[in-house]
Amino acid sequence: EFVQAATRKGTMDDKEMTEQLSAKELKKQSIDEVRKSLPTFAYRQDLLNAIEEHQVIIIEGETGSGKTTQIPQYLYESGYCKGEMKVGCTQPRRVAAMSVAARVAEEMGVKVGAEAGYCIRFEDCTSERTRIKYMTDGMLLREFLTEPDLKGYSVIMIDEAHERTLHTDILFGLVKDIARFRPDLKLLISSATLDAEKFSTFFDDAPIFRIPGRRFPVDIYYTKAPEADYLDACVVSVFQIHLTQPPGDVLIFLTGQEEIETCCEMMQEKARALGSRIRELLILPIYANLPSDMQSKIFEPTPPGARKVVVATNIAETSLTIDGIVYVIDPGFCKQNNYNARTGMESLVVVPCSKQSANQRTGRAGRVGPGKCFRLYTAWAYMNELEDSTTPEIQRTNLANVVLLLKSLGINDLIHFDFMDPPPHETLVLALEQLYALGALNHLGELTKLGRRMAEFPADPMLSKTILASEKYNNFVQHRSLKRARDVRDQLAGLMERVEIEQTSSGGDSAAIRKAITAGFFYHTARLTKSGYRTVKQQQTVHIHPNSSLFEEQPRWMVYHELVFTTKEFMRFGINKIFLRIRMGNSCLVLSFLLGKQLQLQCIEIESGWLLEVAPHYYKSKEIEQESKKMPRKQGKSAAELG
Ligand code: ADP
Ligand code: MG
């Protein structure tokens, strides 16, 4: 009765149709049906007409009505992406950007990253084909650095505007500005109810387009007394619902990954204890750092007879819509960053959520039918302890990062920047002070060369300065490489287990690693002679590449991976190639990670004695000692053992 989605299944059950249509066609058909069933669909043409007529439109619609997934597709379908133009849509949250892009790609019948893609920090899943681009608000902000007029976009949709994240707030000012000299650019400011008037006022009284949602009544239950342990209370409530209430999925709002994982474990344990006495309970977490294949699980339909429990951060408040939710459990907290400009201290703290959040959460229970919301706090607390709305992030965060970015966009007068709600004066001043101290600004408050370079990094100024300082101190790391290194390492570790090698650490002894490499590459040994490097067996003349840090060092004995003939035969150690041959891919990263050195190891220094150790059958000690006597070892820095 509750799950309206059952009516959508009609086509799936239709036997005749099933026989005629392939699975793919059937899927496409059911996707089309879902698309047409969304509240936005009825307003498709009206909306397109309004966009045609006005440059800026505020769109207000209930969560789940289809704003994020449908509107960019309507624009795409009606020609807004002609001539390689893109429709850009910002999301305050990474998970949402990834998830909606995946959904839209599925609806369009393409791979994510093709016509529909997403871009989040450290992950660009777009291509030249991408026409609908979902991205975090922070990413669009950074695009201003390379494309100040956003000329590649025909439409920018600032979605989830009500979230009022720092980046979204800054975007408001910037897009309002460029809209003045790009009359062809369309701006859509969309939000889940509330604040539409405020957005309209800010954007010079832009018209408001309201998409009436369907919303069923939701009964709200409060606790009689405050809960001492809200995680425990969540678990108790879930099982009460599961044992006493009609079908329908449950959504729990917690504050972060750790809490979510704990709660899931507690529920799993309890479900195990009850065993077959209860119907199946599917417990699914969702938070920002969850791997994306796990994230998509929350959208899979619940099997008949089972009940799904989604344990989420406030990402599920408005950014993601999970169909089938009938019960919401809300302990009434969220994690929030706070900044004290006087002490310069930043903190991430768990605070009571706002009434606005509480009501959004409640609304999630009424999408498919009448629902129930269990608030794990008292009615008195709701009335007296919850703020009406969440303070915009710009008023409670460190602004150093954003100030640096604005400065590098040439916006010098920050006091008069077009803020929807200006940040506290002292926060701005402190940000300027911090940037001056880091050397990003000079005493006139102008961007320095260092500051310009710092602004290029999507990181806090202290971090970007750290990264830039590595130019002087040589301390380079790359997030993605390390991540990939870990994946490859896991694969290698698995294979090592298969061939029964116990893993131990060399304890930072690079000689041990170089010995292991020599054991494999003794064939490729070169030694320094009076007339330069020669391979030991074939007596071929070879050279160290000038890019190698061993170029100056000229160690006596070397092994190399391969000879590359350009102008000379250079010795090089492209470790990736070695492992590519055993189909491991990317393993250069593992080794360079292990060795803590740069990516391309061209060649490495060895001690001649090792050759006897690793290949006594191949090298005669006479061969090696002779040479050693002739050539006195050149003095060099030990740090450059690896090149
Ligand atoms: P809004 O932006 O108005 O909140 P969305 O466009 O995000 O609405 O979602 C519209 C509908 O699309 C949802 O109600 C849901 O049915 C469907 N949907 C969205 N994302 C997914 C997904 N990742 N998987 C399956 N269905 C989805
Ligand atoms: Mg949305």
UniProtKB/TrEMBL annotation:
EC number(s) given by UniProt: 3.6.4.13
Reactions that this protein is recorded to catalyse: ATP + H2O = ADP + phosphate + H(+)
Region entry Disordered, spans: 624-643
Limits of the Helicase ATP-binding domain: 48-212
GO molecular function, a single term: hydrolase activity
UniProt keyword Cytoplasm present: no
Helicase C-terminal domain sequence ranges: 217-410
GO cellular component: catalytic step 2 spliceosome
A GO biological-process term: mRNA processing
Keyword vocabulary terms for this entry: ATP-binding, Helicase, Hydrolase, mRNA processing, mRNA splicing, Nucleotide-binding
Superkingdom to which the source organism belongs: Eukaryota
Name under which the protein is recorded: RNA helicase
Portion of the parent chain present: 310 to 952 of 952
